[in-house]
Every structure is written in structure tokens, then in C-alpha cells.
Specification:
Blueprint: E1 12-14, E2 27-30, E3 41-50, E4 58-64, E5 70-72, E6 83-91
Antiparallel strand pairs: 1-2, 2-5, 3-4, 3-6
Length: 93
């Protein structure tokens, strides 16, 4: 029997989609780490911010082993539309 341990796809929970009037240093949060095998722990997250929905114009791309579901972003331009995504990565014991 082959078992594949898949990490659930996280979603951005804050700020809400199409939010306006945010700080130029916004904080982004995601759903919690989800995996079927509870022995797997959340080891790091990869956060990306882009000025286009296709993520071809990325302005921030970073991994973080501490801020797993919450990240304070660096200064962003006022009045610019941004797109955010996150990936969660797990580690087996």
C-alpha cells in the first residue's frame, strides 16, 4: 500500500479579498496547517505578493519558519493592487 502525505491547500484569511484602505505595512494571515498524517508538523510557509493575478510581477517572495500563518509584509506602495498567496510545507519526524 502506498500512502501519499498531502498538505492541505491554505487560504488567505486576512485581509479579505478586494480589501481597501490597508496599511502600507499590511499583515497577512492564512488558514491553519492541515494534513491527514498528524505526525507531520508545519515546518515553514512560503509567502508571495505580486502586482498581477498571474504572479509574474512578484514584489515579495519569502519563506518563514517562524511566522507560519501570519506575516507582516514590508512596505507596499499606497494605491497599488496586490495579490497574495501562501504555501504550507510540512516535515515528517
Amino acid at each position: 500500500t502506498v500512502v501519499v502525505d498531502k498538505v492541505g491547500k491554505p487560504k488567505i484569511t486576512s485581509p479579505s479579498s478586494l480589501a481597501t484602505g490597508l496599511s502600507i505595512y499590511p499583515e497577512v494571515t492564512s488558514t491553519d496547517f492541515k494534513v491527514q498524517n498528524t505526525a507531520i508538523t508545519h515546518s515553514f510557509s512560503r509567502w508571495q505578493v505580486a502586482t498581477d493575478a498571474g504572479f509574474t510581477k512578484i514584489v515579495y517572495d519569502g519563506t518563514d519558519p517562524v511566522n507560519l500563518t501570519r506575516l507582516k509584509l514590508p512596505r507596499l506602495k499606497n494605491g497599488q493592487k496586490y495579490y497574495v498567496r501562501v504555501q504550507h510545507f510540512g516535515k515528517k519526524p
